[in-house]
Design brief:
The structure holds 2 protein chains of 2 kinds. Chain A is built from 19 helices and 13 strands. By secondary structure, chain A is an alpha/beta fold. The relative contact order of chain A is 0.11. Chain B has 16 helices and no strands. Chain B is an all-alpha fold. Classes of the chains: A alpha/beta, B mainly alpha.
């Protein structure tokens, strides 16, 4: 296989983005992982998955480029495994140096401005390529960091403003441009580490850097999206108070006048389109995510689902609670607003009227959002649930599973929650809100053959009465609980094991890198790293 | 975002240029003319002294003209005015170094006579009745016209309608608006979004729901306090009915805590009951003496008939009511599901209007 058989070296330190000379002496990694705002400085979530990936592919060497907003004290939360040969940091918001007194011809301003406008408005790998070519031409006179604060940049901003939103506020356009394109220029200026394959874990700026790597090196690019980055940004931008509305549209959503908020959203959509266009393979955790990817121009032929997996052997000894045990439901997760623990508590309140002996556990860390934990405890007191709802804190879940009849997830948003898989591996039935891949895990994918049956019940979000009804049905019917538990257990074993996920990524890497250690990305523009 | 830094360009961005660009020639134009003239002088001298044939001199002149042409072209390409450089070129082409030197002097004279240019510009504008707008006028029109509510935009649709039938972008925009400008009237649309079949919309609706929990709780707390205040002796019928309706709407939303929901329903019913008390309409109380807090549903035809007991007839009460009070009474009966009395009142009011001519 193309993945190196031996580890070729390792850098334990973290280099800043200026460490270009040192990098040229480093060994080439098999896979350069490009991540934004997580590994190795943020624990859990995607970082935990990245750590799992490194350890699941011990024969491959990795380097990591972490995109981070700005310089500051950073404390790694993960020990780099031996097969990680380098870690680079790219700061997105620190871009710009002392101004260059460079005044270019009007045609240069116009060409660069037009390329940027076309890219931001429509986005595609070809338009991104055109932007990088224009920037390369400009960069021949001075580094981009200096040009970013030069009269040339000012002229480009003015040109783009006139084309994109001459009716809007120039002042807000100016600062939005600086924020958005500072990151873009930084990804274009960054010296890429050498690798046989580039693997980005999101679109956005990480996706842009990966697309650029594909364009410049001809190496294959892979994208793995856990959540859909563009949707997350879109939601954030639509709800943001810090983005100014400079055009008064009242309640009219059909008013097509372009405004600053549109500029932000279009930019991230453009970044996503460029990334999708530059990727040889686009993987995600579950089917539903692919709809959003296709909507933003991802080629269906390159889409693939690789679900996360768990170590099912950890749960092999768990025996579900019996009918004679105290009726118990549990929410397993952090006590934070996104888990909507208050709805779970309200559910317990409604359920206790029907099941007086009910015990409702909350098994998860309490230290992330103490304010929210306080609100939850107050709600428990207010509803008189002191003997019913118990906060156990961070515990070893396996110790509790055999006392639980039904596991509940009341989250407002999830991707592919591991807790559903863990409960399934233990043979416990589940009630989950209709978020992320919960329905897919509990009810099976449409192409599941032979069908394994339901592993639980799915409800709407923020619907305590619905959740209470679902839990009540399961608490009252031991046969149904056993049937759901066995179905879910079978599904987890068939589709969601750690070994299967690791094998899928190993195969993906082998397929793309090939025996020669070289491969051609669909958007390759030639050249070597 | 990068910290805001002021630049000379930014500081001067709002200051309009008062110099007409048509005459904003730099000293560089004059220098170019002088250099071109200086270039030809040795060749002219050589030709006059017989060391260079006339063809050679003409060739050198043509060469100088080509270089000058590139310069004029670059002026045009960079957005500069090319009228005077072109005149300079023509003068140089026709008169050689003499034309070039005269042109250079002319350019310098134009460069250093800015004030008179402005006066001339204004004068030209007046006599030509120019329709060209000043940059500042264009800017102010953009601000005054292009940033206000658009009269050309399609009609506004209700958010509930958008959530049910709009495109994904429209639905997301509606949810964004709800998040940024929360009002309890948007709760219906938000409830629909939470049940949407589109995962993207559900996720965003859930994010909005999480975000508005606090403002909703604050708004509900304020409404409950207002209701208590009204019931404590500051009752105003029309406002009370609106408040009652608002409390009922909010209490139907799943984000509201159970205790707050119960308070909202209790106070909404109390506000309606007080209104009916004031208007002299008997209150339908349950077995435990509590007033009905929920509408009773559509009545059967057998329900038709006036209020029982020793109450004065509706006609008599109606005669004592102002129009606005009668409107309030109608609203209150409707909200309480007292449809038979509502219909009776409507008939009585119609009859009274007919009788009054």
């Amino acid at each position: 296989m193309g993945i190196a058989e031996t580890i070729r070296g390792r850098s334990s330190g973290i280099r800043s983005r200026r460490g270009v000379d040192a990098r040229s002496r480093l060994p080439q990694a098999d896979v350069c992982l490009i991540v934004e705002g997580c590994y190795p400085f943020v624990p859990g979530g995607v970082s935990a998955w990245i750590d799992w990936l490194f350890r699941s592919e011990p024969d491959a060497t990795f380097s990591v480029v972490t995109l981070w907003p700005k310089r500051g004290p950073l404390q790694p939360r993960y020990q780099l495994p031996a097969n990680v040969v380098g870690l680079d940091l790219l700061y997105l918001q620190d871009f710009g140096a002392a101004p260059a007194r460079h005044r270019s011809a009007g045609t240069q301003v116009q060409r660069l401005g037009d390329a940027l406008v076309d890219f931001l408005e429509q986005g595609s790998i070809e338009r991104f390529h055109s932007v990088t070519e224009q920037l390369k031409a400009v960069r021949s006179t001075a580094p981009l960091e200096r040009l970013f604060n030069s009269p040339l940049a000012w002229e480009v901003i003015r040109h783009m403003y006139e084309r994109m939103m001459p009716h809007g506020s120039f002042l807000h356009f100016f600062w939005a441009w600086r924020a958005l394109l500072g990151g873009l220029f930084a990804t274009v200026e960054f010296a890429l580490p050498r690798a046989s394959l580039y693997h980005t874990i999101s679109t956005g700026y990480a996706g842009l850097l990966a697309a650029r790597a594909g364009l410049e090196t001809g190496r294959p690019v892979v994208l793995t999206e856990h959540g859909i980055y563009t949707n997350e940004r879109r939601i954030e931008i639509l709800m943001a108070d810090w983005v100014a509305d400079t055009v008064d549209k009242g309640h009219n959503l059909a008013d097509a006048r372009f405004d600053i908020r549109d500029m932000w959203m279009r930019a991230f959509e453009a970044y996503a389109r460029a990334c999708y266009g530059g990727c040889a393979r686009i993987t995600t955790l579950y089917d539903d995510n692919q709809r959003a990817q296709r909507f933003l121009g991802a080629d269906p032929a390159r889409l693939q689902v690789i679900a996360n997996g768990i170590d099912v052997s950890r749960f092999a000894e768990v025996t579900p609670a019996g009918q004679g045990d105290r009726p118990t439901m549990a929410l397993i997760g952090r006590v934070v607003p996104i888990k909507d623990v208050k709805t779970y508590i309200t559910t317990a309140s409604l359920l206790r009227e029907r099941v007086p002996e009910l015990r409702a556990w909350v098994l998860g860390p309490l230290d992330e959002d103490p304010g929210y934990v306080g609100e939850c405890r107050a709600l428990v007191d207010e509803l008189g649930l002191a003997g019913c709802v118990e906060f156990a804190g961070a515990v070893n879940v396996v110790d509790y599973l055999s006392q639980i009849h039904v596991v509940v997830l009341s989250s407002l948003s999830e991707s592919q929650p591991l807790v559903v898989l863990e409960a399934g591996a233990a043979g416990l039935p589940f009630v989950a809100t209709n978020v992320g891949s919960c329905r897919e895990i509990l009810e099976g994918r449409p192409d599941e053959h032979p069908p394994l049956g339901a592993g639980g019940l799915v409800t709407n979000v923020v619907a305590p009465a619905e959740i209470a009804d679902a839990v009540a049905v399961l608490l009252a019917d031991a046969t149904m609980r056993a049937r759901f538990g066995q179905s879910l257990k079978a599904r987890v074993k068939r589709y969601y094991t750690s070994e299967q996920a690791a094998a899928a990524y190993g195969k993906l890497y082998r397929d793309l890198i090939g025996n020669s250690g070289r491969a051609q990305s669909p958007s390759a523009a030639g050249g070597e790293a | 975002m990068t910290a805001h830094q002021s630049t000379p360009e930014l500081e001067n961005a709002a200051v309009p240029s008062i110099k007409n660009p048509a005459y904003a020639l730099s000293v560089r134009d004059s220098l170019v003319a002088i250099v071109a003239s200086g270039f030809e002088l040795p060749f002219i001298y050589a030709q006059l002294s017989g060391r260079l044939p006339l063809v050679g001199l003409l060739f050198c002149h043509a060469l100088a003209l080509v270089v000058l042409s590139f310069y004029v072209g670059s002026r045009a390409a960079t957005g500069g005015n090319s009228v005077l450089p072109t005149m300079l070129w023509l003068a140089f082409a026709a008169l050689g170094p003499i034309g070039g030197l005269v042109g250079a002097v002319f350019c310098l004279a134009v460069r250093f006579s800015g004030e008179s240019d402005i006066l001339l510009d204004e004068w030209y504008a007046r006599i030509s009745r120019s329709t060209e707008m000043e940059a500042t006028d264009v800017l102010s029109e953009r601000v005054a016209v292009d940033r206000v509510i658009g009269v050309d935009a399609p009609p506004t649709r209700s958010f509930a309608d958008v959530i049910e039938t709009g495109s994904i972008e429209e639905r997301q925009a509606a949810l964004g608006h709800i998040a940024r400008h929360f009002h309890s009237d948007y709760l219906g649309a938000l409830a629909l979004a939470l049940k949407s079949r589109e995962p993207v919309i559900r996720v965003q609706a859930a994010a909005v729901a999480a975000r508005i929990k606090t403002p909703l709780s604050i708004e509900l707390g304020g409404l409950l306090a207002k209701a208590e205040h009204m019931l404590a002796g500051h009752y105003e019928p029309a406002a009370a009915l609106g408040l009652s309706h608002q409390l009922r709407s909010i209490s139907g939303f799943s984000l509201v805590d159970e205790a707050a929901r119960r308070s909202a329903l209790r106070l909404a019913a109390a506000l309606n009951d007080r209104g009916l008390d004031i208007l002299g309409v008997p209150i339908d109380r349950g077995e435990n003496g509590a007033s009905t807090s929920e509408p009773r549903g559509l009545p059967s035809p057998l329900d038709e008939g006036g209020p029982s007991g020793g109450q004065p007839s509706l006609d008599h009460r109606l005669a004592a009511l102002s129009d606005s009070r009668a409107d309030t009474l109608e609203e209150s009966l409707l909200v309480n599901g007292r449809f038979a009395e509502f219909r009776q009142l409507r008939r009585a009011r119609s009859a009274s209007r007919v009788a009054a001519g």
